[in-house]
C-alpha cells in the first residue's frame, strides 16, 4: 500500500524520493545510530559509552532478545569499543558490526562438546532421550532436525519426530516429507523413523508429552 500510485498523487511525492525517505527513516532507527556520538572522541571510555549501551540494551529487549543475552551482547560490545577512536560514521558502523558479530559468536559457540551417540548409548536412565529444536520462524529448526535425524538413523538408531509446530502452515507436511524420505533411504520391516503429529491448532507442549508417552527411546521435537 505504501507504494501504491494514489500515495504518490495524494502527497505529491515522486516514487524514488519516497523510497529514499523510507530508507532514511530505517537508517535513523538503526542501532548503529545510538553510537554516532562516539565519532571524534579521542579515546572511548566507559562513561562515553554508557548512554549508547543503555539505548542498545533497551532496543534489543524491545526486539524480544532475552535480558541476559542483551546484557552479554552489550557488555561484550563495551569491552571491545573501550580504548578505540572512531573518526567517521562508516567507522562506527564497521567497528560496531564487528563487535556485535564477535559477541554473538561467543554466545552461540558451545562451551562443551556433546557426543549425542555416546550420550544415547551410555544413558542408564529409563527415560527417553529427547532433543528439542526450538526457535522463531525461519531459523532452521526443521532443517537441522532432519540433519540430526539422518545422522542418528545412519548410526542404527530409531527416531520418533514429534510435530509440535501446530501453528505454521505446512510445518507438519514438511516433517512428513522428511520422514517419508528417511524411511526410503533406511528401509525396514518396522519403520526406523516415525512421525507423531496431532495436526494444527493443538497445544505444542501437550503434543510433545503425548509423543514421549508412546514408548520410543529417542525423540526429536520440533
Concise account of the structure shown:
The chain has 222 residues and is an alpha/beta fold.
Keywords:
9 helices, Rossmann fold, 222 residues, four-stranded parallel beta sheet, Four Helix Bundle (Hemerythrin (Met), subunit A), 53% helix, single chain
The level 1 CATH classification of the largest domain is Alpha Beta
Query: In percent terms, what proportion of residues is strand?
Result: 5-15%
- Extract low-pLDDT stretches: 1-11, 18-28
Instruction: Choose one word for the global shape.
Output: elongated
Give me the strand/helix succession: HHHHHHEHEHEHE
Count of beta strands: 4
Q: Distance N terminus to C terminus?
A: 35 Å
CATH topology of the largest domain: Rossmann fold
Q: Please, how many helices?
A: 9
Biggest sheet character:
4 strands, parallel
CATH architecture of the largest domain: 3-Layer(aba) Sandwich
Estimate percent helicity: 40-55%
The strand order across the widest sheet is: 1-4-2-3
Mean pLDDT: 78
* Count of domains: 2
- Rg computed from alpha carbons, rounded to a whole number of angstroms: 25 Å
Fold blueprint:
Elements (H helix, E strand, L loop, with lengths): L4 H7 L3 H14 L17 H17 L4 H15 L7 H20 L7 H7 L6 E4 L8 H14 L4 E4 L8 H15 L7 E4 L7 H9 L5 E4 L1
Parallel strand pairs: 1-4, 2-3, 2-4
Family: Belongs to the GTP-binding SRP family.
Subcellular location: Endomembrane system
Keywords: GTP-binding, Membrane, Nucleotide-binding, Receptor
Amino acid at each position: 500500500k505504501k507504494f501504491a500510485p494514489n500515495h504518490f498523487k495524494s502527497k505529491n511525492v515522486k516514487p524514488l524520493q519516497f523510497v529514499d525517505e523510507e530508507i532514511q527513516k530505517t537508517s535513523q532507527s538503526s542501532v548503529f545510530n545510538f553510537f554516532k556520538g562516539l565519532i571524534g572522541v579521542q579515546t572511548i571510555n566507559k562513561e562515553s559509552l554508557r548512554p549508547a549501551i543503555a539505548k542498545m540494551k533497551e532496543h534489543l529487549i524491545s526486539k524480544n532478545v532475552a535480558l541476559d543475552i542483551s546484557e552479554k551482547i552489550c557488555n561484550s560490545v563495551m569491552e571491545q569499543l573501550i580504548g578505540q577512536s572512531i573518526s567517521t560514521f562508516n567507522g562506527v558502523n564497521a567497528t560496531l558490526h564487528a563487535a556485535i558479530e564477535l559477541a554473538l559468536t561467543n554466545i552461540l559457540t558451545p562451551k562443551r562438546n556433546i557426543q549425542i551417540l555416546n550420550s544415547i548409548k551410555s544413558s542408564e536412565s529409563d527415560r527417553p532421550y529427547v532433543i528439542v529444536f526450538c526457535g522463531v520462524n525461519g531459523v532452521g529448526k526443521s532443517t537441522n532436525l532432519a540433519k540430526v535425524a539422518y545422522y542418528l538413523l545412519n548410526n542404527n538408531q530409531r527416531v520418533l519426530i514429534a510435530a509440535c509446530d501446530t501453528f505454521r502452515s505446512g510445518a507438519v507436511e514438511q516433517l512428513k516429507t522428511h520422514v517419508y524420505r528417511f524411511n526410503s533411504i533406511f528401509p525396514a520391516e518396522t519403520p526406523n523413523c516415525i512421525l507423531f503429529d496431532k495436526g494444527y491448532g493443538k497445544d505444542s507442549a501437550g503434543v510433545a508429552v503425548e509423543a514421549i508417552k508412546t514408548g520410543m527411546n529417542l525423540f526429536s521435537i520440533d
